[in-house]
UniProtKB/TrEMBL annotation:
Keyword Amino-acid biosynthesis applies: yes
Catalytic activity: L-valine + 2-oxoglutarate = 3-methyl-2-oxobutanoate + L-glutamate; L-leucine + 2-oxoglutarate = 4-methyl-2-oxopentanoate + L-glutamate; L-isoleucine + 2-oxoglutarate = (S)-3-methyl-2-oxopentanoate + L-glutamate
Family indicated by similarity: Belongs to the class-IV pyridoxal-phosphate-dependent aminotransferase family.
One MF annotation (Gene Ontology) recorded for this entry: L-valine-2-oxoglutarate transaminase activity
GO biological process, one term: L-valine biosynthetic process
Protein name as annotated: Branched-chain-amino-acid aminotransferase
Protein source organism: Streptomyces variegatus
Biochemical pathway: Amino-acid biosynthesis; L-valine biosynthesis; L-valine from pyruvate: step 4/4; Amino-acid biosynthesis; L-leucine biosynthesis; L-leucine from 3-methyl-2-oxobutanoate: step 4/4; Amino-acid biosynthesis; L-isoleucine biosynthesis; L-isoleucine from 2-oxobutanoate: step 4/4
Pfam families: Aminotran_4 (PF01063)
The entry's keywords: Amino-acid biosynthesis, Aminotransferase, Branched-chain amino acid biosynthesis, Pyridoxal phosphate, Transferase
List of residues that carry N6-(pyridoxal phosphate)lysine: 202
Domain of life of the source: Bacteria
Enzyme Commission code: 2.6.1.42
CDD domains given in the database record: BCAT_beta_family
Length: 361
């Protein structure tokens, strides 16, 4: 595999300091983008080539481009955090690079070398460093690497040309309420992914498939949908775009990776952070009936969602057909908040990086 260098072609016309500061004061999630982006092409027979850092701009595609018809697309999400000394570090970029390779294999796309993925993210963050929000707050710079099939033609087959891009967006809390507990609608008929499908790949199709159930959740007054397994409609899998954890006193449990669940980097990190703090942490099966029963008998003390975008968000209310219940009295739980703080402390550089997770630029 070739590793292209990234040629820098900085913008002659970046946003003014005042405009940028205005955005950074209230970035929201995924609404604003920095001044630059990285693009790298792949062509059959030639491999990866033409790596460039260029001004952020629309891309032009022929209407018959493969991705527009057959959704051959994958993406990632990771964050850059301002450190106490003003420098910037990203969190576990190699985990995202490895998952990007797994997603590429599942969608018959070329694998980007891990070092190129990291180099591309680094180049963009270095160029747009002024867009990384100040140290200490909830905000960070969200990076969105993605790859699309760019061959032109309507034949259904793996494309022979691809484009990899990285864009960046200053991000506040994913849910407008911040750490305010969210409400969950358990969808007992619509499923997100099936065994043998592509639920463990980070591809746009999985998110498209989640939108209808997500819209149904909204009609039930809920913030997020929770999916069950596709065969027995019994076992909790994940939410529309984040993993779930169940807290049983001193033990946290997350659904095991069955092949139809996305292997979240935050999910994985929390297994380690929880053990560091003296909790038991395990992967296992939790049924929706058990979830309800254990909440009602008090043994299930807290539930939280986790993901790069969502960080750790407490679950306050759960609804399923015909019934609903409160989780930890509808308030953020103690374990949830402790884990959240411990992870953010590492990411913001205010706690020792015991696992060597931070990638300093
Ligand atoms: C992430 O947490 O990075 C995600 O990809 C979730 C969502 C914003 C799609």
């Amino acid at each position: 595999m070739t590793t292209p260098t990234i040629e820098l072609k900085p913008s002659a016309n970046p946003l003014s300091v005042a405009e940028r500061e205005g955005i950074l004061a209230n970035p929201g999630f995924g609404r604003h983008f920095t001044d630059h982006m990285v693009t790298i092409k792949w062509t059959e027979g030639r491999g990866w080539h033409d790596g460039q850092l260029v001004p952020y701009a629309p891309i032009s595609l022929d209407p018959a481009t493969t991705v527009l018809h057959y959704a051959q697309e994958i993406f990632e999400g990771l964050k850059a955090y301002r450190q106490p000394d003003g420098s910037v570090a990203t969190f576990r970029p190699e985990k995202n690079a490895e998952r990007f390779q797994r997603s590429a294999r599942r969608l018959a796309m070329p694998e980007l070398p891990v070092e190129t993925f990291i180099e591309a993210c680094d180049a963009l963050v270095k160029q747009d460093k002024a867009w990384v929000p100040a140290h200490g707050g909830e905000e960070s710079l969200y990076l969105r690497p993605f790859m699309i099939a760019t061959e032109v033609g309507l034949g259904v087959k793996p494309a022979n040309e691809y484009l990899f891009l990285v864009i960046a967006s200053p991000a506040g809390a994913y849910f407008p309420g911040g750490v305010k507990p969210v409400s969950i609608w358990v969808s007992e008929d619509r499923v997100r992914a099936v065994p043998g499908g592509m639920g463990d790949a980070k591809t746009g199709g999985n998110y498209a498939a989640s939108l209808l159930a997500q819209a149904e959740a909204a009609t039930k007054g809920c913030d997020q949908v929770c999916y069950l397994d596709a065969v027995e409609h019994t076992w909790v899998e994940e939410l529309g775009g984040m993993n779930l954890y169940f807290v049983y006193g001193n033990k946290i449990v997350t659904p095991s990776l069955t092949g139809s669940i996305l292997e979240g980097v935050t999910r994985d990190s929390l297994l380690a952070v929880a053990r560091d703090l003296g909790y038991e942490a395990e992967e296992g099966r939790v049924s929706v009936d058990q979830w309800q029963r254990d909440s009602e008998n008090g043994s299930l003390t807290e539930v939280f969602a986790c993901g790069t975008a969502a960080v750790i968000t407490p679950v306050g209310t759960v609804k399923r057909a015909g019934t609903e219940w409160k989780q930890s009295g509808g308030e953020p739980g103690e374990v949830t908040l402790r884990l959240r703080q411990a992870l953010l402390d590492v990411q913001r550089g205010t706690a020792p990086d015991a696992h060597g997770w931070m990638h300093r630029l």
